[in-house]
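> call design_seq(struct)
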C-alpha cells in the first residue's frame, strides 16, 4: 500500500511565524500545507497569506465544483480571493491539526472531519454540503471488458484503488466487504483524482472513484456499483470562512454542486 506522505506538524503560531520570518507570504509552503505554493499579493495579515484571502482546504473530489464556487464567490465579493488547496481529506486534516492556516475545511468523510472538530479547530458545527457515490471507472471503450465489482478482484487485470486511510479508500473497503470480495489492486493512490488519472491514461484497466469524478472526465466510462451515499461535511475554521461556507450551502452553491453530479445533502 502506498503511504500518504505527510509533513511534520507544528503549532499554528510557530508555523505562521516561520512563514512570515522567512518572507514566504504564500499559502501552500511545504512546511505548513504540503501543497504547491500559491502566488498572491505581498500584503499579509501576519498569518502567511494576503489580506482578504479565504483559504479553503477541500477534498480532491471537490476540485471542479469548488473551483467554480470560488469564482462565483469572488464575483459576489469584490476584493476577496479564495485560495484553494485540494488533496486527500486525511492529509488535509492532519495539516490543519498541525497548524496549517486555513479558513474552511471540506472533507469527503465525516470521520475525517471529526479529526479537525475534535481538536477544537472549528468555528462552529459542520454541515453536510453534498453526497456522492462510488463507481467503477474504465478507460473509454472499456478495453478490458470490465463488467462489475468482481472484476476488481481479478488478479489478471490491473486495478487502482484509493489508499485505505483516505475516505475514498475507506468507502471502497466497505463496498468490497459487503460484496464478500477481496480486491486485487496493483496500486493504491493517495486521493481519488490520482486513481482517475491512472484510468484516463490507460495505465490500469479499472479504478474505483466517485461518481462526480467519472462525470468530470471525457476519457473514461462508468460502471455502476452498489454503494451507500457518502456525506461530504464542510465547516468554517475562522469567522472569515463562514461566509464561504454559507455560499456553498446557498441555493447557488447547491446548484453548482448538483451540476457536478453531487447529490443533495
Amino acid at each position: 500500500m502506498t503511504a500518504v506522505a505527510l509533513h511534520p506538524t507544528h503549532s499554528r503560531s510557530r508555523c505562521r511565524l516561520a512563514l512570515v520570518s522567512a518572507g514566504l507570504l504564500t499559502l501552500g509552503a511545504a512546511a505548513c500545507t504540503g501543497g504547491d505554493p500559491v502566488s498572491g499579493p505581498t500584503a499579509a495579515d501576519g498569518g502567511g497569506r494576503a489580506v482578504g484571502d479565504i483559504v479553503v482546504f477541500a477534498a480532491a473530489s471537490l476540485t471542479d465544483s469548488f473551483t467554480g464556487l470560488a469564482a462565483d464567490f469572488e464575483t459576489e465579493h469584490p476584493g476577496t480571493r479564495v485560495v484553494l488547496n485540494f488533496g486527500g481529506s486525511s492529509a488535509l486534516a492532519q495539516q490543519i491539526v498541525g497548524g496549517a492556516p486555513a479558513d474552511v475545511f471540506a472533507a469527503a468523510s465525516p470521520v475525517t472531519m471529526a479529526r479537525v472538530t475534535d481538536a477544537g479547530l472549528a468555528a462552529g458545527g459542520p454541515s453536510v454540503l453534498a453526497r456522492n457515490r462510488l463507481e467503477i471507472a474504465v478507460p473509454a471503450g472499456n478495453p478490458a471488458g470490465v463488467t462489475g465489482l468482481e472484476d476488481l478482484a481479478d488478479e489478471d487485470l490491473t486495478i487502482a484503488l484509493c489508499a485505505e486511510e483516505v475516505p475514498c479508500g475507506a468507502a471502497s473497503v466497505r463496498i468490497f466487504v459487503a460484496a464478500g470480495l477481496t480486491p486485487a489492486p496493483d496500486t493504491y493512490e493517495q486521493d481519488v483524482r490520482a486513481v482517475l488519472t491512472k484510468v484516463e491514461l490507460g495505465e490500469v484497466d479499472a479504478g474505483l472513484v466517485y461518481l462526480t469524478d467519472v462525470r468530470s472526465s471525457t476519457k473514461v466510462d462508468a460502471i455502476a456499483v452498489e454503494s451507500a451515499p457518502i456525506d461530504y461535511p464542510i465547516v468554517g475554521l475562522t469567522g472569515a470562512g463562514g461566509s464561504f461556507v454559507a455560499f456553498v450551502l446557498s441555493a447557488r452553491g447547491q446548484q453548482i454542486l448538483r451540476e457536478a453530479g453531487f447529490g443533495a445533502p
